[in-house]
Amino acid sequence: MSGVLARRDRALTPEETEELLRDRLGEAAVVGSVVEYGVFTLRIAQEHWLEAARRCRDEPLLAYDLFDNLFAVDMREEGFDVVTVLYSTSTGNRLVLRTRCAGGREAPTCPSISDVYRGANWMERETWDMFGIEFEGHPGLAPRILTVENFEGWPLRKDFHLVSRGVKPWPGVKEPAELDEDGNVIERVPRIGDAPGPYELDKVIAEQAKLANPVPEPVTAEGGNVEELAQDADLASDSGQVLTSADEQAAEEAEAQASDVAADVAGAQAQDLEQTAKDKAEQRRREQAEARRRKAEERAADADDAGAAPDQEGNA
Amino acid sequence: MGVMDQIELPTPIKYVFNWGRKYSLWCFNFGLACCAIEFIAASAARHDFIRHGVIPFAHGPRQADLLVVSGTLTDKMAPAVKRLYEQMPEPKYVISFGSCANCGGPYWDSYSVTKGVDQVIPVDVYVPGCPPRPEALLESIMRLQDLIQGESLKERMERRRRDPITLAAAGVPERESTT
User: Are residues B76 and A170, on separate chains, in Cβ contact within 8 Å?
Assistant: First the structure.
């Protein structure tokens, strides 16, 4: 912040701010502090919440005279946090105060700071509207201002149930990176018709859409791999005969043993791949698919061993 | 409306009457989100839908013939749309502009977004897109004008009285491809 009027030279450092507040409010009031992303956050014990806000505004050294905003964070089983951001126009400092609501998930409550900062009034109303946190001492939280008056539930809570999602699941990948058991990113290409609606007609339409938009090539295509190898072999060398007649198993073995034919083909393939970046991407994808398939095979083998062992004992 | 919705007009008079109606659509823009920007672009110099006889920015719903709902309609806003629509005089037409107004669009699973403006008021023409280009709005206006040219006010009002909620138009006539 490089405001012309802000006196940066008079601004307290985060450490000094924390020390001052500890001195004024008592050691128990400040639970913790952290500087994250260039923002200084103080965790305040809930019973000192109102007093902390008042001190931040009234202490001449702090002078946080501008109330920026107030909101809540759903901390899942730990309850809810109320966060407020304050700004000082005289020093240019920004301070984040954070407190844990009393009452857990069932009946979260927090003291209102609308007496200290008038602007907190509607912020607290909105927070109540979205999270269901009761602000004690607030002049009047109801009626709801963001949702419709007869809305039921607290929509920004993590456990709020989205009705539409219950009827129709989210199409495609839910998270940016969905991981399998080994921590590898699952690459999923969304297909047309993957998430049909709840009705029979939707399913029929989805089936038709799938038929009309066939998958060009299976993603884990061992077969496609072999075919391409064979094509390369046809183009590159006269040893293509061997590969075209070979089945998947043979091609795999050949690849694994790095026999002369496979080496030739791989060399030719490598040259081809160097030519275009697109082919490189293809290769990488294929390698990933290969690695994943091998892991799956290993797992299956382990499972077979584990399953077979008790059987033998039983037989014996 | 007078007697226009009581008697079936003779065909030549109806033709002229509808021709006059379709080229003086006073438009009431219910801009709710980013689609409203596209609507404004369509009304501004480059696309300029006044050349189609659509007059933007009616003084209020009481002076408007056409309601364009462009943007995300929330449950909180829905009563306002309903109220302003009911203030418009008959015959009135509605264009639902953009995916949000059509069906909720990308906010289909939201806790606060209405799943389409047709849950609240009857819609004549839907314009798909997120947001649709101004050309799409021009196309929808021409479709609506075809509808107005071909319709009988008596039939429309009878249909309206029978079912004021769900029925807007009997169907928009197919256009010949303009491409």
Answer: no
Q: Give the total number of structural domains in chain A.
A: 2
Measured between beta carbons, the chain B residues lying within 8 angstroms of A151 are 75
B112 to chain A: closest CA residue: A147
Range of the domain at A48: 8-136
User: Distance, in angstroms, between A198 CA and closest chain B CA?
Assistant: 15
pLDDT single digits (tens) B76-119: 999 999 999 999 998 899 999 999 999 988 898 889 999 999 88
Pairing of strands A94-100, A80-87: antiparallel
Q: Are residues A181 and A130 in the same domain?
A: no
A124 & A192 share domain? no
In a domain, A70, yes or no: yes
Residues of A in contact with B108 (CB under 8 A): 164, 168
Please give the residue that has the higher pLDDT: either A213 or A47. A47
Give the integer Cα–Cα distance in Å for A113 and A126: 14
pLDDT under 70 in chain B at which residues?
1, 164-179
ipTM score assigned to the predicted complex: 0.75
Question: Cβ of B57 under 8 Å from any chain A Cβ?
Answer: no
Torsion over CA of B150, B152, B157 and B160, rounded to 10 degrees?
-40
Q: What would the DSSP string read from start to end of chain B?
A: -TTTTTSPPPHHHHHHHHHHHHT-EEEEEEE-STHHHHHHHHHSTTT-GGGGTEE-S-SSGGG-SEEEEESPPBTTTHHHHHHHHHHSPSS-EEEEESHHHHH-GGGTT-SSB-S-GGGTS--SEEE-SSSPPHHHHHHHHHHHHHHHHH--HHHHHHHHHH-TTT---S-PPPPPP--
Assess B106–A contact: CB distance below 8 Å, yes or no: no
Domain assignment of residue A41, yes or no:
yes
Q: Which of A194, A215, A236 is the last residue of a domain?
A: A215
Instruction: Tell me the chain B residues in contact with residue A144 when contact means C-beta distances shorter than 8 Å.
Output: none
